[in-house]
Amino acid sequence: MSNTVKIGKSEVTSTPLGLGTNAVGGYNLFPNLNDDDGLNIVKTGIENGITLLDTAYVYGLGHSEELVGQAIKDFDRHKLVIATKGAQDMSTGEEVVRNDPKFITQQVENSLKRLGTDYIDIYYLHFPDKDTPKAEAVGALERLREQGKIRAIGVSNFSLDQIKEANADGYVDVVEDQFSLVHQDLGAETLPYLKQNNISFVPYFPLASGLLTGKYQHDVSFPKDDIRSGMPIFQEPLYSQILKAVDTVRPIAEAHDATVAQTVLAWYIKNPLISVVIPGAKKPDQVVANAKAMTVELTDKEFKQIDDAFETFK
Ligand SMILES: NC(=O)c1ccc[n+]([C@@H]2O[C@H](COP(=O)([O-])OP(=O)(O)OC[C@H]3O[C@@H](n4cnc5c(N)ncnc54)[C@H](OP(=O)(O)O)[C@@H]3O)[C@@H](O)[C@H]2O)c1
Questions:
Q1: Cα(143) to centroid of ligand 1, in Å?
Q2: pTM (2 d.p.)
């Protein structure tokens, strides 16, 4: 199994499994983690061989980036891949999505400061705005790349048409968007397009916010301030349908002496359309367990069995 993947046309290389940090730094999607726990999660990831850390300005309005910056001080910066994102202007107190070159250039400078580093390995436009021509926004990132401030250019939550427009000059290295075994809308058109154009793909919510770990049985409920309380995947009839598909992963996991979560993560790692899988975590032991997915090597038959079990979500 290859232990490194290359990001698009850039020189950035990463482990095939990274760490998602939207629970680190108080994004308020979930009941908050405190800073010590957040820091510990990031450090545990690095100590367990994960090189890519996925953060964003909007995760705690800069606080996730600050904690990631604090955590990486104890490690060799050059071995790490820091991915962050920006597009939200909060200066009026309301969120306004902006991709204009002036704003994005300033956002990159702000992220560099919060991360305490002089370069960002992957910088994503977090969301598309309505007005800025996409190639113009990406052109601003290209200039930052020429200055050595970022090393690879990404876009996130862009439609296929928007990706094509953004990549008019061939500068886009990586796309991040929602994709999982239970959310495969991008599988038919977008992922093959990215592959053909040497653009890496990073799926978010790979564990379907924990549902694909196999830890849920029947009857689940979340507090109101937890984003999962409103997610359709945790409501019937979808919920039971997913639990049934997850059951098909159990014997495959057992055959590898692995957990369901590790086996699901191994499915993404083996998937040729996927570059780096970035599961999030709320506890260090989840990070330790998830990092071990990099040692689980599925056979072609097992890959297909899992693929088939989730066919209905394509
Ligand atoms: N670009 C974007 O717009 C965007 C949007 C969303 C997310 N993201 C990125 O994608 C990353 C991943 O998404 P996510 O973290 O929201 O969802 P996820 O990876 O699908 O699920 C992560 C959650 O599953 C549970 N979990 C993780 N490992 C586990 C294990 N081994 N055993 C049992 N439970 C486990 C934890 O929650 P519990 O302990 O609470 O169950 C954890 O917070 C984010 O952190 C973020 O970096 C990007």
A1: 32
A2: 0.98
